[in-house]
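Sample intake — Glycerol operon regulatory protein
Collected from: Nesterenkonia aurantiaca
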Amino acid sequence: MDEQKEQTVVAATGTAAPSSAPRAPGVQSVDRALDILEVINAHGGQLSLSELAEETGLPAPTAHRLLRTMIAKGYVRQLANRSYGLGEKLILLGRAASARA
């Protein structure tokens, strides 16, 4: 957050803005879901819930809710060993993007 915006937040709320890593603009849940997909991909396509939560910095219940949504939509799959991998829908999107490139 730039200094002027931080001063505005302090003036409006009376407290300083959190000093954690800057957040991307947009929808937080979408940002978090994409982080999960990127982490799964970076780790060979298979991680447990606890590993995903640790790698993304998300609370496990939050990661689990996002995973359930992505499973329902086909972007993530749960493997027999209860770990999570990338889903079939990502392959289809990748192929479509490659064909248009």
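Post-analysis note: The chain has one domain: 27-100.
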